Amino acid sequence: MAKVVLVTGVSRYLGGLFARRLSNDPSVERILGVDVVPPRHSIGRADFVRADIRNPMIGRIMAQAAVDTVVHMNVIATPRDTGGRVTQKEINVIGTMQLLAACQKSESVSRLVVKSSAAVYGSSPRDPAMFSEDMNPKTLPRTGFGKDSVEVEGYVRGFSRRRPDVEITMLRLANVVGPNIRTAITDYFALPFVPVPLGYDARFQLVHEDDATAAMILATTGPAAGIVNVAGDGFVTVTQCTAIAHRPIVPVPLPAAGLLGTVIRRSGLADFSSDQLTFLAFGRGLDTSRMRTVLGFEPRFTTREAFEDFARHLDPVVPGVDGVGEAVSGAAGGTATALSRVFDRIQP
């Protein structure tokens, strides 16, 4: 049972939310919240320790506090708040390496819980309808957070071979949404006009921020569960999401979507990568049987309910957006068709 818990990434939203919720568990005697900058939100009764997991000093912190459980929440999904992609990769990959090295040397650590992502499965037209935890991706993520998550999981598997005495639970979360969290997917559907790959309407699953946090807490305080997919029941499609969010769509030919994504990313409106655009074209399905039978977790929100809760807190594009959205979407469709014809003509 977790007594002294070290939580990384508490200055980020999900890490802080996890620390606050874990603080309500009286069986946990002490919580250490670690990050490079002080949190601007409450972290409950967690003691904040200013430290960089990329620095070997993290091992001394574990030893001094006799940490028995490490919860790695600091696998960052977007480079927006980290100073760019280079820093994001350093924190995700180098930070995880150093953290696992400290865990390997620790005599007190007996459990490791890692927040991973369903992005490790990639997204392609050859994917199965549902990915179970023992399946490999048909196409590995090539860039960004998905690639980082694949590397992080590789290091965790290596650690498990070196320290078979440490219990490990790794949660592959579907895209997290909610009224307060900001991720690449929430920024995307918050755009005033949502670019949609022309001719595609991907289906995918989501998990509410409260459910993601509850699953992480159960992984921390309950029995070890290994690798587990976590997602809300059901699916939504891209166009269903735009309708729920009252956002007009702009259909864009998939080969040209990368250029548009670059423009949007550089404008700071949302974080786009080629892997995310592929996800929006082909989607992804997760088998969540282990979530119920092994982890023993039942989400409160379905995929649709999670997105609806997020959408309720969106500002409208313009007053009376429902009617305007339909009109603009129709006009955008005509524009996208013209763009598609132009693009076809310039293909070699």
UniProtKB/TrEMBL annotation:
Name this protein carries in UniProt: NAD-dependent epimerase/dehydratase family protein
Name all NAD-dependent epimerase/dehydratase domain ranges.
Answer: 5-230
* Pfam families from the UniProt entry: Epimerase
Q: Which InterPro entries match?
A: Epimerase_deHydtase (IPR001509), Lipid_A_modif_metabolic_enz (IPR050177), NAD(P)-bd_dom_sf (IPR036291)
Q: Which organism is it from?
A: Terrabacter terrae
Classification lineage: Bacteria, Bacillati, Actinomycetota, Actinomycetes, Micrococcales
> Could you list the residue ranges that cross the membrane?
none
